[in-house]
What we know:
Layout lengths: L9 H20 L6 H33 L5 H15 L1
Helix pairs in contact: 1-2
Amino acid sequence: MQPATAPIDAIELLTADHRKVKALFEEYDNLSDRSVATKKKLATEICLELTRHATAEEEIFYPVVRQAAGDSEDLVDEALVEHACAKAG
């Protein structure tokens, strides 16, 4: 018999993502301009984390918020537009 696992708290997960990406940005900002390879590695990691975070919001969090708001949640629409702009570059 498999041990029971605790359910994932979406807000806790997204908050942890925010903290992690903020720390990565701070680490990036604290590097000298001569640390090109390290900056490139951090930039790649930041992009990956932001992509994972946006996917979690779009596929898990936003649908639940929209359903709870009765399909009239303007903030969800605004967030989706922001994500689309970020993805477009």
